[in-house]
Design the sequence.
């Protein structure tokens, strides 16, 4: 079964940082491009970044609201995708989804990790 | 504000046909494929339509998509209570260099 499982969500104080993990199974993670999408409470979906497969160059793109504060990385040996966000703001409060983004849109989604930024 | 524009809500009765619209611009819908996602309450989005009008395996043929110019639409025929969900459109934006979404349309089955 193709599956993505996020972990690492929680409560973070404003100005703090957080790392989310996403473990993939059921497909060849090494060849996959991966994206992160977030959804603030009661709001729509917002793409925040993508990382290409290393074999395709490994280019990373970020959305404007997180550029300079977010770092996406991958560990192909452990089929794991990471999202690190620093200098966090209340508006970063959201459910963060890991997705497979493989030329046919974002076709596989994790269950989401809830991140709350509050003092 | 979302880059793509969707009506916040839509509704229909069981058996009806409902159409949800998504409006963009030349830098996104006008030059790239459109994707649709279904999000049932409290769950992650589900891949519903890809490349404008293609259905992934397992998606009923009651769901269909189309794209024309800078707009796209999702039609649901034979509406069922289990179709009650949020529907999100998405495409790549060449100017922004990333994926953009609509704000989502909440479909209510009356």
Sequence:
């Amino acid at each position: 079964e193709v599956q993505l499982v996020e972990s690492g969500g929680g409560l973070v104080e404003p100005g703090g940082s957080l790392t989310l993990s996403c473990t993939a199974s059921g497909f060849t993670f090494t060849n996959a491009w991966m994206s992160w999408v977030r959804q603030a409470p009661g709001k729509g979906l917002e793409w925040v970044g993508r990382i290409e497969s290393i074999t395709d160059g490994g280019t990373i793109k970020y959305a404007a609201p997180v550029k300079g504060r977010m770092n996406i990385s991958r560990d192909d040996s452990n089929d794991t995708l990471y999202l690190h966000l620093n200098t966090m703001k209340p508006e970063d409060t959201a459910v963060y989804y890991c997705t497979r983004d493989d030329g046919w849109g974002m076709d596989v989604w994790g269950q989401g990790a809830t991140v709350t930024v509050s003092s | 504000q979302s880059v793509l524009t969707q009506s916040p809500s839509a509704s229909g009765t069981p058996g009806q046909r409902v159409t949800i619209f998504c409006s963009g611009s030349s830098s996104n819908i006008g030059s790239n494929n459109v994707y649709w996602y279904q999000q049932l309450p409290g769950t992650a989005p589900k891949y519903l339509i890809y490349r404008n009008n293609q259905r992934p395996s397992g998606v009923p043929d009651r769901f269909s998509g189309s794209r024309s110019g800078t707009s796209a639409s999702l039609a649901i025929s034979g509406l069922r209570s289990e179709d009650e969900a949020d529907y999100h459109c998405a495409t790549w934006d060449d100017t922004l260099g990333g994926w953009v979404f609509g704000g989502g349309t909440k479909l209510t089955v009356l």
Observations:
- Chain B touches chain A at residues 2, 33, 35, 37, 43-47, 50-51, 56, 88, 90, 96-104 (CB under 8 Å).
- Chain B has a mean pLDDT of 97.
